[in-house]
Amino acid sequence: MDLANAGEVGKAPVANQVADVVSAKSSNLCPCVKLKPVSKVTKGGYLEVGVQTYGGGLWHTWFDRDLTIAGRVIVKKEKSGSVSYIHRLVRVEDPIMRIPTLAIHFDRGTDGFKVNTQSHLLPVLATRELNKAVTKNDAQNDGEKTDPKSSPNSSKHHTLLLQLLADQLNCEPDDICDFELQACDTQPSLVGGAQKEFIFSGRLDNLCMSFCSLKARNMTEALLTYLEGQVPA
């Protein structure tokens, strides 16, 4: 169980202060699908991304969705002969991955389809042949030879994936030292229903509790300011 806690310390003497504490429960560790430290998978002519589940999720709902990646990236910066490392937040807006399912007539078992998170939850990133062609064309256009082993992370992650991240961060793929990324649905949350009475979104229990708690905490700032003015110093 994860908890989000927040508190407010007033300006009046401690003995006269009013406590303002809020806590929200974030159940099931905010289930998601995270990229593995070594995510490079090539199988059946496709470039796939190795992922691992986090928390207790309904993993069958991740199939056939338009997925992208988001999270934190550690980028190397060189300036005046010195090297520093910074954390950058990143999100690729376009849908770049998908976890496909087989047609129903390929799975006629009496027990139905059972998700194997190690072998079934492998997002497809691209075809291997098309990726080879793009890499070759880029090398010819630049007049240089492209060695996929030149990147320190090319043995752990697909070069195409690193290039997508580098484009978002305005850096070179070689500058990406490490990252903590997760797959996420590109379909946004929205208000729906015939009378616009429903919220269509994932992880509503976590998000609603956190939002309402922080909203209530922020609304009490005006009250605290008023009370501090009424309490003698």
Automatic annotation (TrEMBL):
Q: Which cofactor does it need?
A: Zn(2+)
Q: Name one GO biological process term.
A: proteolysis
Give GO MF terms, alphabetically. Answer: aminopeptidase activity; metallopeptidase activity; zinc ion binding
Annotated keywords: Aminopeptidase, Hydrolase, Metal-binding, Metalloprotease, Protease, Zinc
Provide the transmembrane region boundaries: none
InterPro entries to which the protein is assigned, alphabetical: Peptidase_M18 (IPR001948), Peptidase_M18_dom2 (IPR023358)
Q: Name one Pfam family in it.
A: Peptidase_M18
Gene Ontology cellular component terms for the protein in this record: cytoplasm
Tell me the superkingdom of the source. Answer: Eukaryota
* Family under the similarity heading: Belongs to the peptidase M18 family.
Q: What is this protein called?
A: Aspartyl aminopeptidase
